[in-house]
Amino acid sequence: KLLVRFAQNNGTITLYGDGSNQRDFVYVDDIFELTVKAINRETEASLNVATGTSFSILAAADFIIEKFGGNCSLIFKRSAQ
After folding, report:
1. For residues 13-21, average pLDDT
2. Label partner for 40 (CA 20 to 30 A): which of 29, 53, 74, 75?
3. 11-20 average pLDDT score
4. CA distances (Å), origin 38, targets 26, 27, 50, 80
5. CA-to-CA distance for 13 and 59, rounded, in angstroms?
């Protein structure tokens, strides 16, 4: 969501490092549904939610840029400050 917000606000996505970090992205509505189910069961268990498929941050940024019609730029920075 943060990458999309960057693209929407200023047309620029900033990645720290080379973008090769892997993440398991989960759709927010799926998280919401699981949270509601856990609340309804009144459980005290911890939930770890994952799809089992990881993508690089660079691949996610490229996907977002494609969806914005290529009207976004990608900036790489060495480290977060």
Report:
1. 90
2. 53
3. 89
4. 17, 17, 16, 35
5. 12
Residue 10 backbone dihedrals phi, psi, to 5 degrees: -135, 5
Tell me which residue of 6, 12, 27 sits closest to 73, measured CA to CA.
12
Supply 35's token pair: 């949270």
CB atoms within 10 A of CB 61: 22
39-70 pLDDT, tens per residue?
888 777 787 888 999 999 999 999 888 888 87
CA 30 to chain centre: 14
Distance CA 21, CA 54 (A): 9
Would you say how long the chain is, in residues? 81
In angstroms, the CA 77 to CA 18 distance is 8
